[in-house]
């Protein structure tokens, strides 16, 4: 950020005189360098800045507060859109008109008072003309606690009906991780940077039924899929997606950091672009890539200024966004690129007059869908309406939007499960995601609201034992989550079911059959081949593990014996 002395040094004597009059300072006489030093020193004198700020018009105060909040530098076009442009006047016209006496708008008032200056700089991914506050003034204005005018969003009555997702997204991530552990989610082909994604998470291929806590919206399932992949909670294994070690760590985390990690994975994902999800728009250039991260962050920054916990008009918020951050999607202020068309009419949407059909539609989509799915807002509908007309920021939404803010109060005590004699297990939802993930290794999910209900059966125990979970492990786990309140009848039944397991083995295997005994002896005499063979069933036949077939075939061919493979 530019220094105050450097900013003043670039000004003409006429502008320096105008600034000195605004600050009620006698301009020091002498060489230009000494004049600039003297003026800057007077501007930085105790209480001089406070006195000047107190004399600003309300609009100038609002514009200055917005710049201070933004760190002291903003793209000029954004401020021009809100407050009017700065005229470019030559030296003669400046002397003749003295624009500081009657500034055309709030920005000219700040410019001729020496509070803001023109420059060319980079702001996020924008490079071009900016307006800035010199470093020394920015530091002092920040210390003053200069406040912006409150975001003007209309409050509304509670809607006829509302939709609130809460933590349904993380609950459904748990359900899908359970399905992935059970081998029910196929891995699609590798995408960019070697990322693998599920072939489909639609209800047609992964029917979660009542287990799904949120809606079965295709875009919502796609978002869950994207978050799972981006957070590396799943990985491809032999054509299936399986949970990773990271998944267990994520499930073990406390509710708040786990929820926050999902929010950040969405917010900072450059490959998930909501603009391309809008059915009302068509991009003429399919290769165009915007910056969805900056767009989300800019919109979320404005949303964070709205009052939480009360119902607000969605139309009113979009209007406030248009006034305060019209360039949230296109930070360069170029509203003619890329070429966007109305998907229904084919009309080309260009210029700022199309803002409502592009930026406005995107803002409504972000609030009504992703932000609701993430539990940041609830949305409301009027009687009989299909489109939302209102929203409110939730408690957890306020904490997510306000970085560094205190998270919602967490449950400190470890949730305690109740195990009934009918083998029903009830466990509070809060703080128990990992316990429920483990519970689903041997118990069947039944239902949930604020508490989740599971049931153990002989069938569920048999399936768990086939997956390698022993009854002794199950009993230890149940005693831990119930604080040792497992009924003797339940413990005895589990042990009795455990004794039934493994008395016979049904195994999928491959049979190797040689044409005669000498051939089998030749094969089994080779150490590298013998290590791949299983149990001998006769002098000419033996078992082979399915995973060893490919390696065994190579070894046999190297020996000059070409196997006839029938699988």
Walkthrough of the structure:
With 567 residues, the chain is α+β, with helices and mostly antiparallel strands. A 4-stranded antiparallel sheet has the order 4-13-14-10. Helix 5 (58-69) crosses helix 8 (106-112) and helix 15 (314-324) crosses helix 16. The N and C termini lie far apart (71 Å).
Give me a quick take on this structure.
By secondary structure, this protein is α+β, with helices and mostly antiparallel strands. Helix content is 41%, strand content 15%.
Key attributes of the depicted protein:
four-stranded antiparallel β-sheet, single chain, alpha+beta, 25 helices, 4 domains, 41% helix, 567 residues
What's the topology here?
Elements: H1 4-9, H2 13-22, H3 32-43, H4 48-54, H5 58-69, E1 73-75, H6 76-83, H7 91-97, H8 106-112, E2 117-123, E3 126-132, H9 135-144, E4 161-163, H10 168-181, E5 187-190, E6 196-198, H11 218-230, E7 234-237, E8 240-243, H12 245-252, H13 255-267, E9 281-283, H14 292-303, E10 312-313, H15 314-324, E11 340-342, E12 348-349, H16 359-368, H17 370-373, E13 377-381, E14 390-393, H18 395-401, E15 418-419, E16 424-428, H19 433-439, E17 444-448, E18 451-455, H20 458-466, H21 471-481, H22 488-500, E19 510-513, H23 517-524, H24 527-530, E20 533-538, E21 541-544, H25 549-558
Antiparallel strand pairs: 1-3, 2-3, 4-13, 5-6, 7-8, 9-11, 10-14, 11-12, 13-14, 15-16, 16-18, 17-18, 19-21, 20-21
